[in-house]
Design a protein that fits this description.
about 110 residues; mainly alpha; Methane Monooxygenase Hydroxylase, Chain G, domain 1; elongated
């Protein structure tokens, strides 16, 4: 492999990793919004953000990420769009923090 090919491959890998971090961060932000809105009683808005989170989570399941992140993404995808309650809000808050930490501290 030439130096140019190696550089191109490294750039592609770095781009994919950056895309994955952005995806995880977007999912985290949407989950934190769902939790916040649910706790304030804004179920319609929370449901809308949960739909967005489910879209991100389906895409995340196809990425090369830690197994626990895939499990979180599967659980989010399996939820009903109207699953907005205090216990669910607490779960979404926890998931959001876990995903935020993954996005920020993944090596």
């Amino acid at each position: 492999m030439t130096d140019t090919q190696a550089d191109t491959q490294a750039d592609a890998q770095a781009g994919t990793e950056a895309d994955t971090r952005l995806l995880v961060g977007s999912l985290s932000n949407d989950l934190l919004r769902v939790a916040s809105l649910a706790q304030r009683g804004s179920t319609q808005a929370a449901s809308r953000f949960l739909g967005e989170a489910q879209r991100w989570s389906r895409e995340l399941q196809q990425r090369d990420v830690a197994e626990y992140v895939v499990k979180l993404a599967r659980d989010i995808s399996a939820r009903q769009a109207d699953d907005i309650s205090m216990p669910s809000a607490e779960r979404y808050l926890m998931y959001g923090v876990l995903l935020q930490n993954y996005a920020l501290h993944r090596s």
